[in-house]
Amino acid sequence: MPNLYRETAPMSEAVTNGIRVEVLCRYAPENSRPLHNDWVFQYTVRITNQSDQTVQLVSRHWIITNGLDHVEEVKGPGVVGEQPVLAPGESYKYSSWCPLPTPTGMMRGTYQMLRPGGEQFDIEIAPFALRAKQTIH
């Protein structure tokens, strides 16, 4: 069976219904405490509306898998306290973080979007790796 943690890059890209989601992740050693099993990862997301309709991001659903294959799900309104509205051609960018008890893991998920007529739909956040740089002393 392939090792998904090794094969998944610390970046991802997906387009669903004309909405592009790009993610770039990095290990944040300045906020981590490996001796206490606390690794922190920062990720930056850019959402671009490539459709011909205005959309609003209303909620998020993250699926976070750590290096021991323990899965946590995080659901909530908006992102970083906002529910951005994107007209055609507009982008929205934000950064957040994810703590893990292991030096490797993976994140994926969906954003729930809303069109002006009230139609809700999900857009994909493709899987991306959470991987601390290993150091050898």
Description:
The chain is mainly β. It has a single domain (4-125), classed as Immunoglobulin-like, CATH 2.60.40.1470. The protein has 1 helix and 9 strands; from the N terminus they run H-E-E-E-E-E-E-E-E-E. Strands 4, 5, 6, 8 and 9 form a 5-stranded antiparallel beta sheet that branches. It has a 4-stranded antiparallel beta sheet with strand order 1-2-3-7, with no helix packed on it. A hairpin with a 2-residue loop joins strand 1 and strand 2. The two termini are 31 Å apart. Mean pLDDT is 92; it is low at 1-5.
Q: Which properties best describe this structure?
A:
Immunoglobulin-like; elongated; mainly beta; 5-stranded antiparallel β-sheet; 4-stranded antiparallel β-sheet; 137 residues
In short:
The protein is mostly beta strands and 137 residues long. Helices cover 3% and strands 58% of the residues. The chain has one helix at 4-7, and strands at 11-16, 19-27, 39-49, 55-66, 71-77, 85-86, 91-100, 104-114, 120-131.
